[in-house]
Design brief:
The chain is α+β, with helices and mostly antiparallel strands. Among the domains are: 39 residues; 33 residues, no CATH class. Helices cover 33% and strands 19% of the residues. The protein is built from two helices and three strands. Strand 1 and strand 2 form a beta hairpin.
Length: 104
């Protein structure tokens, strides 16, 4: 499976690293930013992969685990051909999922 890095996370990590070294008076942050500019411009110019974060059934608002077997449950979004709720495994996922909101 391929690994993907969010561009915003990469740029934030770069800034954090520069600040750490700058606070330690190890180098001139402005000079480092200027030296890194061609690399950072290249990162910004790379086309993004057409991906989206998946939501597994266990994290979906439509999934209702069975009390006797919690790794399985019913999906309240999808109906099977007999108009019954589809049985899903907690590690399944689909494009209709909606993240379960934390109840904090």
């Amino acid at each position: 499976m391929a690994d993907y890095i969010r561009r915003e996370d990469l740029m934030a990590a770069r800034e954090q690293a520069i600040r750490v070294y700058e606070n330690a008076n190890i180098f001139n942050a402005a000079a480092i930013r200027e030296d890194l500019r061609p690399l950072l411009d290249a990162v910004v110019d790379v086309p993004a992969a057409n991906i989206t974060e998946i939501i597994h059934c266990k994290d979906c608002a439509y999934f209702h685990p069975y009390p006797f077997e919690p790794e399985y449950g019913s999906c309240k979004y999808h109906l099977d051909p007999d108009l019954q709720w589809e049985e899903k495994k907690e590690t399944d996922y689909c494009s209709d999922a909606e993240r379960l909101e934390d109840e904090d």
